Amino acid sequence: MDVKGQKQFETEVLKSTVPVLIDFWATWCPPCKIYGPVIEEVAKENEGKVKLVKIDVDQNEDIASHYGISSIPTTFLVEKGKVKASFVGAIPKDKLRKWLTENL
Fold first, then answer.
1. CB 33 within 8 A of CB 87
2. Cβ–Cβ contacts within 10 Å for residue 85, how many?
3. 40 Cβ neighbours under 8 A, 6+ residues apart
4. 95 and 87 Cβ atoms separated by less than 8 Å
5. For residues 20 and 45, what is the distance between their CA atoms, to the nearest angstrom?
6. What's this model's pTM, rounded to 2 decimal places?
7. Helix or strand or coil: residue 50?
8. Which residues are catalytic?
9. Could you read off the pLDDT tens digit of each residue along the chain, which spans 104 residues?
10. Which domains does the chain have, with CATH numbers?
11. Is residue 44 a contact partner of residue 100, using CB atoms and an 8 Å limit?
């Protein structure tokens, strides 16, 4: 799900009853284009345990700024409104699976 704006972010992320995997990305970012399908597949494999939210940093500068996003792609795992884990960069599917399993 692509989040657009603070209100939708609060509903979909901060008030979520399941952990949220956030992909901070931008349309002009080549690594983001490669990583996007990877994170989507891993999120689908973990359906029910986690939900994926994609945040275009150009359309949501206030959210990106609030979380100090300076490089993309950046991935967050948010649980009960708080960032539980994060990393910067595109990683292979097996490493993403391992990171998610360790942090859920």
1. no
2. 16
3. 52
4. no
5. 14
6. 0.92
7. strand
8. 29, 32
9. 677 777 888 888 999 999 999 999 999 999 999 999 999 999 999 999 999 999 999 999 999 999 999 999 999 999 999 999 999 999 999 999 999 999 99
10. 6-103 (3.40.30.10)
11. no
